Amino acid sequence: MRLRRLRGQRLFKCICCIFFAFMFWTFVSYLFSFNDEDFPEDVAYDIFIDETKEDHVHIPLDQEILEELERIKQKKNNYADQVVDDPKDPIVLWWTEFTGEPGKTRRCGDQQCFFTNNRKYSSHKHMKVFMFYGTDFNDEDLPLPRSPDHIWALFHEESPKNNFLLCHEDVLTLFNYTSTFRRESDFPITTQHLISLDWLLQKTFDKTVSQKNSYQEEDGLASVIYVQSGCDPPSDRDEFVKLLMNYISVDSYGTCLKNKKLPEKISHPLGGMSHRDFYELISQYKFALSMENAVCEDYITEKLWRPLMVGTVPIVFGSSRVKDFLPSNNSALEVINFRSAEHLATYINYLNSKDSLYDNMRDWKSSGISNTYLKEIMEKRTWGPDNNGHWIPGQKNFIEDYECYVCEQIHETIKKVSLGEGQFTKWANHSHYGCPKPLKFNSLGKYAHEGNWLDFWSSQWERQRQKASSLRRCVSEGRCDRNKANL
Ligand SMILES: *[C@@H]1O[C@H](CO)[C@@H](O)[C@H](O)[C@H]1NC(C)=O
Ligand SMILES: *[C@@H]1O[C@H](CO)[C@@H](O)[C@H](O)[C@H]1NC(C)=O
Ligand SMILES: *[C@@H]1O[C@H](CO)[C@@H](O)[C@H](O)[C@H]1NC(C)=O
Protein backbone atom coordinates (compact mmCIF):
# COMPACT_ATOMS: atom_id res chain seq x y z
CA MET A 1 0.00 0.00 0.00
CA ARG A 2 2.68 2.40 1.13
CA LEU A 3 4.94 1.20 -1.64
CA ARG A 4 2.22 1.65 -4.21
CA ARG A 5 1.60 5.16 -3.02
CA LEU A 6 5.31 5.87 -3.25
CA ARG A 7 5.35 4.52 -6.77
CA GLY A 8 2.29 6.61 -7.54
CA GLN A 9 4.09 9.67 -6.20
CA ARG A 10 7.12 8.90 -8.25
CA LEU A 11 5.03 8.46 -11.34
CA PHE A 12 3.26 11.71 -10.53
CA LYS A 13 6.60 13.50 -10.02
CA CYS A 14 7.87 12.07 -13.24
CA ILE A 15 4.81 13.27 -15.15
CA CYS A 16 5.18 16.66 -13.51
CA CYS A 17 8.81 16.73 -14.52
CA ILE A 18 8.02 15.95 -18.10
CA PHE A 19 5.22 18.47 -18.09
CA PHE A 20 7.41 21.24 -16.68
CA ALA A 21 10.26 20.33 -18.99
CA PHE A 22 7.84 20.65 -21.89
CA MET A 23 6.55 24.01 -20.62
CA PHE A 24 10.10 25.21 -20.11
CA TRP A 25 11.10 24.13 -23.58
CA THR A 26 8.04 25.85 -25.06
CA PHE A 27 8.87 28.98 -23.13
CA VAL A 28 12.52 28.98 -24.16
CA SER A 29 11.73 28.35 -27.80
CA TYR A 30 9.20 31.15 -27.52
CA LEU A 31 11.87 33.51 -26.22
CA PHE A 32 14.17 32.53 -29.03
CA SER A 33 11.60 32.87 -31.72
CA PHE A 34 11.01 36.39 -30.45
CA ASN A 35 14.66 37.28 -30.14
CA ASP A 36 15.41 36.23 -33.68
CA GLU A 37 14.04 39.51 -34.77
CA ASP A 38 16.17 41.57 -32.47
CA PHE A 39 19.40 39.76 -33.23
CA PRO A 40 19.57 38.93 -36.88
CA GLU A 41 22.14 36.29 -37.69
CA ASP A 42 24.04 38.21 -40.28
CA VAL A 43 25.14 41.44 -38.69
CA ALA A 44 27.08 43.22 -41.42
CA TYR A 45 24.37 42.35 -43.82
CA ASP A 46 21.73 43.64 -41.49
CA ILE A 47 23.23 47.05 -40.96
CA PHE A 48 22.03 47.62 -44.44
CA ILE A 49 18.86 45.61 -44.35
CA ASP A 50 17.94 47.29 -41.11
CA GLU A 51 16.91 50.30 -43.17
CA THR A 52 14.02 48.30 -44.48
CA LYS A 53 12.85 47.33 -41.04
CA GLU A 54 9.59 48.87 -40.11
CA ASP A 55 10.86 50.50 -36.94
CA HIS A 56 13.71 52.34 -38.57
CA VAL A 57 12.39 54.14 -41.54
CA HIS A 58 15.12 55.81 -43.46
CA ILE A 59 14.33 57.62 -46.64
CA PRO A 60 17.58 58.85 -48.14
CA LEU A 61 17.75 62.36 -49.47
CA ASP A 62 20.15 64.10 -51.72
CA GLN A 63 23.38 65.35 -50.22
CA GLU A 64 22.23 68.93 -50.67
CA ILE A 65 19.15 68.42 -48.55
CA LEU A 66 21.14 66.64 -45.89
CA GLU A 67 23.47 69.61 -45.67
CA GLU A 68 20.55 71.99 -45.36
CA LEU A 69 19.14 69.83 -42.58
CA GLU A 70 22.46 70.00 -40.77
CA ARG A 71 22.41 73.81 -40.98
CA ILE A 72 18.89 73.87 -39.56
CA LYS A 73 19.94 71.61 -36.72
CA GLN A 74 22.89 73.86 -35.91
CA LYS A 75 20.62 76.89 -35.86
CA LYS A 76 18.22 75.11 -33.55
CA ASN A 77 21.02 74.25 -31.16
CA ASN A 78 22.05 77.87 -30.98
CA TYR A 79 18.53 78.93 -30.19
CA ALA A 80 18.44 79.71 -26.49
CA ASP A 81 15.55 78.08 -24.67
CA GLN A 82 13.22 80.43 -22.89
CA VAL A 83 13.47 79.44 -19.28
CA VAL A 84 10.06 79.69 -17.68
CA ASP A 85 9.53 78.56 -14.12
CA ASP A 86 5.96 79.57 -13.73
CA PRO A 87 4.24 79.24 -17.11
CA LYS A 88 1.26 81.50 -17.76
CA ASP A 89 0.07 79.52 -20.77
CA PRO A 90 -1.73 76.17 -20.88
CA ILE A 91 0.78 73.41 -20.19
CA VAL A 92 1.18 70.58 -22.65
CA LEU A 93 3.21 67.84 -21.00
CA TRP A 94 4.65 64.82 -22.77
CA TRP A 95 4.11 62.16 -20.12
CA THR A 96 6.13 59.62 -22.07
CA GLU A 97 9.74 60.68 -22.53
CA PHE A 98 9.61 61.81 -26.11
CA THR A 99 10.71 65.27 -27.14
CA GLY A 100 13.16 65.75 -24.27
CA GLU A 101 11.93 69.32 -24.03
CA PRO A 102 12.66 70.71 -20.53
CA GLY A 103 10.11 73.48 -20.95
CA LYS A 104 9.47 76.14 -23.54
CA THR A 105 6.70 78.50 -24.54
CA ARG A 106 5.86 78.28 -28.22
CA ARG A 107 3.52 80.17 -30.48
CA CYS A 108 0.96 78.23 -32.43
CA GLY A 109 -0.86 80.55 -34.80
CA ASP A 110 -2.47 83.20 -32.58
CA GLN A 111 -2.08 81.07 -29.48
CA GLN A 112 0.65 80.04 -27.08
CA CYS A 113 1.27 76.97 -25.01
CA PHE A 114 4.00 75.80 -22.70
CA PHE A 115 5.48 72.51 -23.90
CA THR A 116 7.52 70.31 -21.66
CA ASN A 117 8.70 66.78 -20.91
CA ASN A 118 9.14 67.53 -17.23
CA ARG A 119 6.63 65.83 -14.96
CA LYS A 120 7.17 68.38 -12.23
CA TYR A 121 4.61 70.55 -14.05
CA SER A 122 1.88 67.94 -13.79
CA SER A 123 0.38 69.52 -10.66
CA HIS A 124 0.74 73.09 -11.91
CA LYS A 125 -2.50 75.07 -12.06
CA HIS A 126 -2.17 75.55 -15.83
CA MET A 127 -1.64 71.87 -16.48
CA LYS A 128 -3.95 71.01 -19.39
CA VAL A 129 -2.76 68.30 -21.73
CA PHE A 130 -0.91 65.05 -21.18
CA MET A 131 0.66 63.81 -24.39
CA PHE A 132 1.53 60.15 -24.91
CA TYR A 133 3.73 58.49 -27.47
CA GLY A 134 1.86 55.29 -28.33
CA THR A 135 4.75 52.85 -28.28
CA ASP A 136 5.68 53.98 -24.76
CA PHE A 137 2.15 54.19 -23.40
CA ASN A 138 2.21 52.09 -20.26
CA ASP A 139 -0.89 51.31 -18.22
CA GLU A 140 1.22 51.14 -15.07
CA ASP A 141 2.60 54.62 -15.38
CA LEU A 142 -0.14 57.13 -15.99
CA PRO A 143 -1.01 60.56 -14.60
CA LEU A 144 -3.78 59.32 -12.32
CA PRO A 145 -6.17 59.97 -10.79
CA ARG A 146 -7.33 61.93 -13.78
CA SER A 147 -8.76 65.34 -13.12
CA PRO A 148 -11.91 66.08 -15.18
CA ASP A 149 -10.21 68.92 -16.99
CA HIS A 150 -7.12 66.95 -17.94
CA ILE A 151 -6.94 66.34 -21.66
CA TRP A 152 -5.10 63.27 -22.94
CA ALA A 153 -3.59 63.29 -26.40
CA LEU A 154 -2.13 60.32 -28.22
CA PHE A 155 0.57 60.34 -30.86
CA HIS A 156 1.05 56.94 -32.43
CA GLU A 157 2.34 56.53 -35.94
CA GLU A 158 3.93 53.12 -35.50
CA SER A 159 2.89 49.56 -36.12
CA PRO A 160 0.23 48.05 -33.82
CA LYS A 161 2.80 45.36 -33.04
CA ASN A 162 4.60 47.90 -30.84
CA ASN A 163 1.75 48.22 -28.39
CA PHE A 164 -1.41 46.18 -28.81
CA LEU A 165 -2.97 48.01 -25.87
CA LEU A 166 -3.90 50.83 -28.25
CA CYS A 167 -5.80 48.52 -30.57
CA HIS A 168 -8.70 48.52 -28.17
CA GLU A 169 -11.56 50.94 -27.85
CA ASP A 170 -11.42 50.81 -24.05
CA VAL A 171 -8.06 52.56 -24.16
CA LEU A 172 -8.65 54.74 -27.20
CA THR A 173 -11.66 56.38 -25.55
CA LEU A 174 -9.34 57.66 -22.81
CA PHE A 175 -7.80 60.08 -25.31
CA ASN A 176 -9.44 63.33 -26.30
CA TYR A 177 -7.18 63.87 -29.31
CA THR A 178 -5.23 61.52 -31.51
CA SER A 179 -2.66 61.65 -34.26
CA THR A 180 -2.24 58.27 -35.94
CA PHE A 181 -2.00 56.79 -39.42
CA ARG A 182 -5.75 56.29 -39.45
CA ARG A 183 -7.59 58.87 -41.55
CA GLU A 184 -10.27 59.02 -38.83
CA SER A 185 -7.84 60.33 -36.24
CA ASP A 186 -7.92 64.03 -35.40
CA PHE A 187 -4.56 64.75 -36.98
CA PRO A 188 -4.00 61.95 -39.49
CA ILE A 189 -0.50 61.20 -40.71
CA THR A 190 -1.24 58.42 -43.16
CA THR A 191 1.23 59.79 -45.70
CA GLN A 192 4.01 60.12 -43.14
CA HIS A 193 6.42 58.11 -45.30
CA LEU A 194 5.73 59.89 -48.54
CA ILE A 195 8.24 62.69 -49.06
CA SER A 196 6.27 64.45 -51.78
CA LEU A 197 4.43 63.73 -55.01
CA ASP A 198 7.39 65.02 -57.01
CA TRP A 199 9.60 62.58 -55.18
CA LEU A 200 7.18 59.79 -56.07
CA LEU A 201 6.96 60.82 -59.73
CA GLN A 202 10.69 61.05 -60.31
CA LYS A 203 12.17 58.67 -62.86
CA THR A 204 15.69 58.61 -61.45
CA PHE A 205 15.69 54.84 -61.04
CA ASP A 206 13.10 53.76 -63.59
CA LYS A 207 14.06 50.95 -65.94
CA THR A 208 12.36 50.16 -69.22
CA VAL A 209 10.47 46.91 -69.43
CA SER A 210 13.02 45.53 -71.87
CA GLN A 211 15.82 46.33 -69.45
CA LYS A 212 13.88 44.46 -66.77
CA ASN A 213 13.38 41.54 -69.13
CA SER A 214 17.08 41.34 -69.76
CA TYR A 215 17.88 41.32 -66.03
CA GLN A 216 15.69 38.23 -65.84
CA GLU A 217 17.07 36.56 -68.93
CA GLU A 218 20.73 37.43 -68.62
CA ASP A 219 21.29 37.87 -64.89
CA GLY A 220 18.77 35.28 -63.77
CA LEU A 221 16.76 37.64 -61.60
CA ALA A 222 13.30 36.54 -60.50
CA SER A 223 10.33 38.72 -61.38
CA VAL A 224 9.64 39.44 -57.69
CA ILE A 225 11.87 40.85 -54.95
CA TYR A 226 11.34 40.49 -51.21
CA VAL A 227 13.57 42.19 -48.64
CA GLN A 228 12.54 41.79 -45.03
CA SER A 229 14.51 41.22 -41.87
CA GLY A 230 11.76 41.48 -39.30
CA CYS A 231 10.63 37.88 -39.60
CA ASP A 232 7.35 36.34 -38.40
CA PRO A 233 5.56 39.58 -37.59
CA PRO A 234 1.82 39.76 -36.76
CA SER A 235 0.83 39.99 -40.43
CA ASP A 236 2.24 36.49 -41.04
CA ARG A 237 3.67 37.78 -44.34
CA ASP A 238 6.53 35.26 -44.49
CA GLU A 239 3.97 32.47 -44.57
CA PHE A 240 2.37 34.03 -47.63
CA VAL A 241 5.69 34.56 -49.37
CA LYS A 242 6.59 30.95 -48.64
CA LEU A 243 3.37 29.87 -50.38
CA LEU A 244 3.99 32.20 -53.27
CA MET A 245 7.44 30.69 -53.70
CA ASN A 246 5.75 27.38 -54.53
CA TYR A 247 4.42 28.88 -57.73
CA ILE A 248 6.85 31.58 -58.75
CA SER A 249 10.44 32.42 -58.01
CA VAL A 250 11.02 35.24 -55.56
CA ASP A 251 14.44 36.70 -54.82
CA SER A 252 14.61 37.18 -51.07
CA TYR A 253 17.56 39.21 -49.78
CA GLY A 254 16.53 39.87 -46.18
CA THR A 255 16.95 37.57 -43.19
CA CYS A 256 13.45 36.21 -43.75
CA LEU A 257 13.32 33.41 -46.33
CA LYS A 258 16.71 34.51 -47.57
CA ASN A 259 17.69 32.80 -50.79
CA LYS A 260 19.95 35.34 -52.42
CA LYS A 261 22.95 37.38 -51.44
CA LEU A 262 22.97 41.08 -51.95
CA PRO A 263 25.32 42.29 -54.67
CA GLU A 264 28.83 42.89 -53.35
CA LYS A 265 28.42 46.64 -53.71
CA ILE A 266 25.50 46.74 -51.32
CA SER A 267 26.48 44.08 -48.83
CA HIS A 268 29.40 46.09 -47.47
CA PRO A 269 27.68 48.89 -45.64
CA LEU A 270 30.89 50.61 -44.63
CA GLY A 271 32.50 50.38 -48.04
CA GLY A 272 30.71 53.17 -49.80
CA MET A 273 27.36 51.53 -49.53
CA SER A 274 24.64 53.96 -50.47
CA HIS A 275 20.92 53.70 -50.44
CA ARG A 276 20.89 54.51 -54.10
CA ASP A 277 22.27 51.05 -54.69
CA PHE A 278 19.32 49.57 -52.90
CA TYR A 279 16.87 51.62 -54.96
CA GLU A 280 18.81 50.52 -58.00
CA LEU A 281 18.39 46.88 -56.98
CA ILE A 282 14.63 47.13 -56.49
CA SER A 283 14.24 48.97 -59.78
CA GLN A 284 15.68 45.99 -61.66
CA TYR A 285 12.70 43.88 -60.62
CA LYS A 286 9.24 44.05 -62.12
CA PHE A 287 7.47 43.42 -58.82
CA ALA A 288 8.27 44.03 -55.16
CA LEU A 289 6.47 42.47 -52.22
CA SER A 290 5.27 45.38 -50.07
CA MET A 291 3.84 43.59 -47.10
CA GLU A 292 3.45 45.45 -43.82
CA ASN A 293 4.37 43.84 -40.52
CA ALA A 294 0.81 44.20 -39.29
CA VAL A 295 -2.63 44.54 -40.77
CA CYS A 296 -4.46 47.73 -39.96
CA GLU A 297 -6.51 50.22 -41.93
CA ASP A 298 -4.33 52.99 -43.34
CA TYR A 299 -1.13 51.52 -41.98
CA ILE A 300 1.07 52.33 -44.96
CA THR A 301 4.83 52.63 -44.82
CA GLU A 302 7.80 53.24 -47.08
CA LYS A 303 7.35 49.64 -48.23
CA LEU A 304 4.63 50.93 -50.53
CA TRP A 305 6.20 54.18 -51.68
CA ARG A 306 9.70 52.89 -52.36
CA PRO A 307 8.88 50.50 -55.23
CA LEU A 308 6.46 53.00 -56.71
CA MET A 309 9.19 55.62 -56.69
CA VAL A 310 11.70 53.37 -58.48
CA GLY A 311 9.22 52.24 -61.13
CA THR A 312 8.54 48.76 -59.76
CA VAL A 313 5.02 47.44 -59.23
CA PRO A 314 4.28 46.78 -55.54
CA ILE A 315 2.38 43.71 -54.37
CA VAL A 316 0.63 45.19 -51.37
CA PHE A 317 -0.64 43.75 -48.12
CA GLY A 318 -1.54 45.65 -44.97
CA SER A 319 -4.34 48.16 -45.23
CA SER A 320 -7.43 47.01 -47.09
CA ARG A 321 -8.03 50.63 -48.09
CA VAL A 322 -4.60 51.18 -49.60
CA LYS A 323 -6.24 51.78 -52.98
CA ASP A 324 -7.33 55.19 -51.72
CA PHE A 325 -3.68 56.23 -51.59
CA LEU A 326 -2.29 54.67 -54.75
CA PRO A 327 -1.18 57.10 -57.48
CA SER A 328 -3.58 55.52 -59.95
CA ASN A 329 -6.18 52.77 -60.17
CA ASN A 330 -3.78 50.45 -61.87
CA SER A 331 -0.46 50.92 -60.11
CA ALA A 332 -0.24 48.02 -57.66
CA LEU A 333 -1.41 44.46 -57.04
CA GLU A 334 -3.23 43.77 -53.80
CA VAL A 335 -2.86 40.40 -52.15
CA ILE A 336 -6.44 40.53 -50.86
CA ASN A 337 -7.81 40.77 -54.40
CA PHE A 338 -6.60 37.29 -55.28
CA ARG A 339 -8.34 34.06 -54.41
CA SER A 340 -5.06 32.39 -53.53
CA ALA A 341 -1.30 32.71 -53.67
CA GLU A 342 -1.41 30.51 -56.76
CA HIS A 343 -3.78 32.89 -58.54
CA LEU A 344 -1.56 35.82 -57.69
CA ALA A 345 1.46 33.95 -59.02
CA THR A 346 -0.37 33.13 -62.25
CA TYR A 347 -1.29 36.76 -62.71
CA ILE A 348 2.25 37.94 -62.02
CA ASN A 349 3.52 35.50 -64.64
CA TYR A 350 0.96 36.77 -67.09
CA LEU A 351 1.93 40.42 -66.55
CA ASN A 352 5.57 39.42 -66.71
CA SER A 353 5.04 38.10 -70.22
CA LYS A 354 2.98 41.02 -71.51
CA ASP A 355 5.20 44.08 -71.73
CA SER A 356 2.47 46.54 -72.61
CA LEU A 357 0.16 45.38 -69.81
CA TYR A 358 3.05 45.67 -67.38
CA ASP A 359 3.88 49.14 -68.61
CA ASN A 360 0.25 50.22 -68.19
CA MET A 361 0.78 49.80 -64.48
CA ARG A 362 3.52 52.42 -64.59
CA ASP A 363 1.71 54.87 -66.85
CA TRP A 364 1.06 57.19 -63.95
CA LYS A 365 4.75 58.06 -63.89
CA SER A 366 4.29 59.83 -67.22
CA SER A 367 0.64 60.78 -67.22
CA GLY A 368 0.70 62.00 -63.62
CA ILE A 369 -1.14 61.08 -60.46
CA SER A 370 -4.84 60.53 -61.12
CA ASN A 371 -5.87 59.89 -57.53
CA THR A 372 -7.50 63.16 -56.52
CA TYR A 373 -7.81 62.07 -52.87
CA LEU A 374 -4.05 61.60 -52.64
CA LYS A 375 -3.39 64.89 -54.42
CA GLU A 376 -5.72 66.75 -52.09
CA ILE A 377 -4.15 65.25 -48.97
CA MET A 378 -0.67 66.15 -50.16
CA GLU A 379 -1.69 69.68 -51.06
CA LYS A 380 -3.32 70.29 -47.71
CA ARG A 381 -0.54 68.66 -45.70
CA THR A 382 1.04 71.26 -43.43
CA TRP A 383 3.98 69.10 -42.37
CA GLY A 384 6.79 67.13 -43.93
CA PRO A 385 7.64 63.51 -43.28
CA ASP A 386 10.11 62.21 -40.76
CA ASN A 387 13.37 61.27 -42.35
CA ASN A 388 15.03 59.27 -39.65
CA GLY A 389 14.63 62.10 -37.19
CA HIS A 390 15.30 64.81 -39.76
CA TRP A 391 12.77 67.03 -41.38
CA ILE A 392 12.55 68.41 -44.87
CA PRO A 393 13.75 72.03 -44.99
CA GLY A 394 10.93 74.52 -44.94
CA GLN A 395 8.40 71.99 -43.73
CA LYS A 396 7.15 71.64 -40.20
CA ASN A 397 7.68 68.32 -38.52
CA PHE A 398 4.45 66.52 -37.73
CA ILE A 399 5.13 66.23 -34.03
CA GLU A 400 5.44 69.99 -33.56
CA ASP A 401 2.49 70.48 -35.86
CA TYR A 402 0.38 68.09 -33.82
CA GLU A 403 1.46 69.80 -30.59
CA CYS A 404 0.19 73.04 -32.06
CA TYR A 405 -3.05 71.43 -33.17
CA VAL A 406 -3.64 70.30 -29.60
CA CYS A 407 -2.65 73.73 -28.23
CA GLU A 408 -5.14 75.46 -30.51
CA GLN A 409 -7.91 73.03 -29.52
CA ILE A 410 -7.24 73.75 -25.85
CA HIS A 411 -7.50 77.48 -26.36
CA GLU A 412 -10.70 76.95 -28.30
CA THR A 413 -12.17 74.93 -25.43
CA ILE A 414 -11.06 77.47 -22.83
CA LYS A 415 -12.69 80.23 -24.89
CA LYS A 416 -15.97 78.33 -25.23
CA VAL A 417 -16.10 77.67 -21.52
CA SER A 418 -15.39 81.31 -20.71
CA LEU A 419 -18.14 82.39 -23.10
CA GLY A 420 -20.50 80.16 -21.19
CA GLU A 421 -21.01 77.85 -24.13
CA GLY A 422 -20.91 74.90 -21.79
CA GLN A 423 -18.36 72.19 -21.37
CA PHE A 424 -17.22 70.89 -24.75
CA THR A 425 -16.32 67.23 -24.58
CA LYS A 426 -14.79 64.94 -27.12
CA TRP A 427 -12.88 61.71 -27.12
CA ALA A 428 -11.51 59.18 -29.56
CA ASN A 429 -12.94 55.80 -30.44
CA HIS A 430 -11.96 52.56 -32.14
CA SER A 431 -11.72 54.23 -35.54
CA HIS A 432 -8.79 56.40 -34.42
CA TYR A 433 -6.38 53.47 -34.32
CA GLY A 434 -8.13 50.18 -33.51
CA CYS A 435 -6.24 47.41 -35.27
CA PRO A 436 -7.79 43.94 -35.54
CA LYS A 437 -6.51 40.75 -33.94
CA PRO A 438 -3.62 39.30 -35.97
CA LEU A 439 -4.61 36.35 -38.15
CA LYS A 440 -2.74 33.67 -40.12
CA PHE A 441 -2.62 32.76 -43.78
CA ASN A 442 -4.28 29.46 -44.64
CA SER A 443 -2.78 26.96 -47.04
CA LEU A 444 -4.29 28.74 -50.03
CA GLY A 445 -2.89 32.09 -49.04
CA LYS A 446 -5.99 33.68 -47.57
CA TYR A 447 -5.39 35.78 -44.48
CA ALA A 448 -8.31 34.27 -42.73
CA HIS A 449 -7.86 32.07 -39.73
CA GLU A 450 -6.95 32.63 -36.10
CA GLY A 451 -3.71 31.29 -34.71
CA ASN A 452 -3.84 28.62 -32.01
CA TRP A 453 -3.35 29.37 -28.32
CA LEU A 454 0.41 29.21 -28.75
CA ASP A 455 0.39 31.97 -31.31
CA PHE A 456 2.42 34.79 -29.83
CA TRP A 457 0.79 37.75 -31.56
CA SER A 458 -2.86 36.88 -31.15
CA SER A 459 -2.38 35.98 -27.50
CA GLN A 460 -0.56 39.29 -26.95
CA TRP A 461 -3.46 41.09 -28.59
CA GLU A 462 -5.97 39.26 -26.36
CA ARG A 463 -3.99 39.96 -23.24
CA GLN A 464 -3.85 43.65 -24.04
CA ARG A 465 -7.59 43.63 -24.67
CA GLN A 466 -8.15 42.45 -21.12
CA LYS A 467 -5.67 44.98 -19.80
CA ALA A 468 -7.49 47.69 -21.74
CA SER A 469 -10.82 46.90 -20.18
CA SER A 470 -9.47 46.83 -16.64
CA LEU A 471 -7.61 50.09 -17.24
CA ARG A 472 -10.80 51.68 -18.56
CA ARG A 473 -12.71 50.54 -15.49
CA CYS A 474 -10.18 51.76 -12.97
CA VAL A 475 -9.71 55.14 -14.65
CA SER A 476 -13.47 55.71 -14.85
CA GLU A 477 -13.94 54.72 -11.24
CA GLY A 478 -10.92 56.75 -10.17
CA ARG A 479 -9.25 53.86 -8.37
CA CYS A 480 -6.13 52.88 -10.27
CA ASP A 481 -4.05 52.29 -7.11
CA ARG A 482 -1.43 50.21 -8.84
CA ASN A 483 -0.36 53.28 -10.76
CA LYS A 484 2.76 54.71 -9.31
CA ALA A 485 2.36 58.08 -10.93
CA ASN A 486 3.88 60.64 -8.61
CA LEU A 487 1.51 63.55 -8.73
C1 LIG B 1 -10.78 54.13 -60.69
O1 LIG B 1 -11.71 53.16 -61.11
C2 LIG B 1 -13.05 53.42 -60.80
C3 LIG B 1 -13.89 52.28 -61.28
O2 LIG B 1 -13.26 51.08 -61.10
C4 LIG B 1 -13.47 54.72 -61.42
O3 LIG B 1 -14.79 55.03 -61.03
C5 LIG B 1 -12.56 55.85 -60.96
O4 LIG B 1 -12.89 57.02 -61.61
C6 LIG B 1 -11.12 55.49 -61.24
N1 LIG B 1 -10.30 56.51 -60.65
C7 LIG B 1 -9.28 57.05 -61.28
C8 LIG B 1 -8.54 58.07 -60.51
O5 LIG B 1 -8.96 56.75 -62.40
C1 LIG C 1 -11.68 63.84 -22.36
O1 LIG C 1 -11.84 62.42 -22.36
C2 LIG C 1 -12.31 61.90 -21.14
C3 LIG C 1 -12.23 60.38 -21.22
O2 LIG C 1 -12.98 59.89 -22.24
C4 LIG C 1 -13.68 62.44 -20.87
O3 LIG C 1 -14.18 61.94 -19.66
C5 LIG C 1 -13.61 63.96 -20.82
O4 LIG C 1 -14.91 64.49 -20.68
C6 LIG C 1 -12.99 64.52 -22.08
N1 LIG C 1 -12.78 65.94 -21.90
C7 LIG C 1 -13.02 66.83 -22.84
C8 LIG C 1 -12.80 68.26 -22.48
O5 LIG C 1 -13.40 66.54 -23.94
C1 LIG D 1 -15.78 57.84 -33.75
O1 LIG D 1 -15.36 59.19 -33.72
C2 LIG D 1 -15.58 59.88 -34.92
C3 LIG D 1 -15.04 61.28 -34.75
O2 LIG D 1 -13.71 61.28 -34.44
C4 LIG D 1 -17.06 59.91 -35.25
O3 LIG D 1 -17.26 60.58 -36.47
C5 LIG D 1 -17.58 58.51 -35.33
O4 LIG D 1 -18.97 58.53 -35.53
C6 LIG D 1 -17.27 57.76 -34.07
N1 LIG D 1 -17.65 56.37 -34.23
C7 LIG D 1 -18.36 55.72 -33.34
C8 LIG D 1 -18.67 54.30 -33.65
O5 LIG D 1 -18.75 56.23 -32.32
UniProtKB/TrEMBL annotation:
It is a single-pass type II membrane protein. This is Fucosyltransferase. Keywords: Glycoprotein, Glycosyltransferase, Golgi apparatus, Membrane, Signal-anchor, Transferase, Transmembrane, Transmembrane helix. It is found in: Endomembrane system; Golgi apparatus, Golgi stack membrane. One of its GO terms (cellular component) is Golgi cisterna membrane. Belongs to the glycosyltransferase 10 family. Its EC number is 2.4.1.-. Residues 223-412 form the Fucosyltransferase C-terminal domain. It comes from the Eukaryota. Residues 88-189 form the Fucosyltransferase N-terminal domain. The chain crosses the membrane at residues 12-32. Pathway: Protein modification; protein glycosylation. Coiled coil: none annotated. It comes from Lymnaea stagnalis (Great pond snail). Its main location: membrane. GO terms for molecular function: alpha-(1->3)-fucosyltransferase activity. It is an enzyme of class 2 (transferase).
